[in-house]
Amino acid sequence: MTQRDTGFGPDLSEVFGPKHEDGGPELIQLLTPEGVRVQHPEFDLDFSAEELRGFYRDMVLVRRIDVEATALQRHGELGIWAQLLGQEAAQIGAGRAVLPQDFVFPTYREHGVAYCRGLDPLKLLGLFRGVDHGDWNPSDYNFNLYTIVIGAQTLHATGYAMGMQRDGVVGTGDPERDSAVLAHFGDGASSQGDVNEAFIFAASYNAPVVFFCQNNQWAISEPIERQSRIPLYQRALGFGFPGLRVDGNDVLATYAVTKAALQRARDGQGPTFIEAYTYRMGAHTTTDDPTRYRLSEDLENWKLKDPIARLEVYLKRNGLAEEAFFSDLAAEADELGHTLREGCKAMPDPRPLDIFDRVYAETTPELEAQRDGYAAYLATFEGAHS
Amino acid sequence: MSTKITLAQGLNRGLRKAMEADDKVLLMGEDVGKLGGVFRITDGLQKDFGEDRVIDSPLAESGIVGTAVGMAMRGYRPVVEIQFDGFVYPAYDQIVCQVAKLHFRSQGRVKMPMVIRIPFGGGIGAVEHHSESPEAQFAHTPGLKVVACSNPVDGYWMIQQAIAHDDPVIFLEPKRQYHAQKAELDDTLEPMPLFESRLVRPGSDATLLSYGPTVKTCLNAAEAAAGEGKSLEVIDLRTLSPLDMGPVYESVRRTGRAVVVHEAHVNLGLGAELAARITEECFYSLEAPVLRVGGFDTPYPASRLEEDWLPDLDRVLDAVDRSLEI
After folding, report:
1. Domain end: B141, B157, B186, which one?
2. What pTM does this model have?
3. Positions of A marked catalytic
């Protein structure tokens, strides 16, 4: 669609113009798709070989979690799975930038960030197997339960950050104390009212929250062009805080940018919007069929920017990892896969009577009566099937 | 110490007491700070407790409730004000999908001690969206508790009890009673528990069941009926979810007749649930079907018609007569 010349306003032909397949000139990158390390004037960091191998290991293991979970769904062990294939760098880069005292609000796809927070990957499967809605205590990991309503968690993140301000853990200068919130969402969520309200509240109160948007180009079948007519990161300025676009397939750049934004928030300088420019290489979920709405050519182009492959090239080309590192990691991934498969199948089914006691902190006589009535009803079947 | 207060003053004092008792209590909403709220319920609180605890929010209801969820997760006890009943709908998703479900979703690990104050009901000559009664929509939602105060003394105690409660409470305030009349408050007395109904006028011929603004209507109707030799019992339900049916059953078994009165639309309103439960539990005591008096099943009308739309003394007595004739 071409822009009508209205005779007023700025010339928007550039932003509305040809899609930037490479993320455009503002893209922050430290490692190219070809595995070449490049410098950035603002966000460069030195990485030790050990750190680089750590990022690589994280991404390989998280991809394995994703592949195993997808297979478990195909075998009928999970009802559905939300895949992260292709977004490993965005999630590991962000997840590793978070400090223990920070708090993370995920969507339902942040398996990589969950892994960084120390959550047993098996716990991620319960929701998708239908045995629970998330079986972990958010405050044990400073990682909220997965939120399914699109964008709702960005407001929770902002409120949590406002709580941190009131607790006096922002801008004190004490690195052990100063805290921030990392709020995840996607390109589709950027259209939600809640996300835009979260931006407004965060800006208004200067809340210590980093809005981390994985723009994976697709909201199920709808392309990013349906959500926004300008690059998402440029929206931030309209809300009154900085927006950055980082190569979301570059774990080094994502880490560097998120680390800087979180520190800015901890220091009391307010929110930042990060658009991690990436690609959903898999389907939206295992129920989706991307061949109905997107070209295989697109996927092939993005495969060339694979987040894991580029770091592997860099490690090997620069002699930063021995062959044994890769073979050991492959064995570790196999072991993780085995653990997940066995653990998933062994997950106990939930007990029907438990639901009645979890509605309220202080239950009601009505619910107690319903529970007791259902228990008595169930008891009438005892022995009937034996 | 005993003193005479309006409902608005009762709520204001109750909020102040709650904030003094627990420094985790925060107030948030549109215009609640400097202005003291459009109904002045939070008058003077920002001045005394500061802008960090009495928070003027951007004009976005979903944002208010959604950020309050995050504050509650951080250990605070947010009390949010929705300026008018008809403005709660932008926050409906956050209330129903998040506030109501987080305790359940987290298997009881995440508590949501939030109070959502909503001035509700009509009779103030307002424009559209300022006179609604959305209580059934919240009472229908598992995970929420819903209460309605009807008088200054209950306002004072119930708001403190709701704030101290660990579950989310939709707190409905009959706006037309805010400044209507004063009542004697003796805060040395022990309040009755939050989730209990109260028999406010004994009688023997029929039971009137109500809450919020129509409790006063029912009391006036009972007084008028007494002049005609009819003895009406009046129960102020106070809690809409959970319902406290014990006093209701006890009363209906004695009188054999029940009329439910609320401003909300009759269709699928609280009256329907009350009628069903009374029929299940008191079937052999009933002398007549449970009748309902409420708003018609139209949107709230322009204010010059609201006296037609709202249940008043005569419509209540008309229903009582129909019940007694059976």
Report:
1. B186
2. 0.96
3. 280, 284, 293
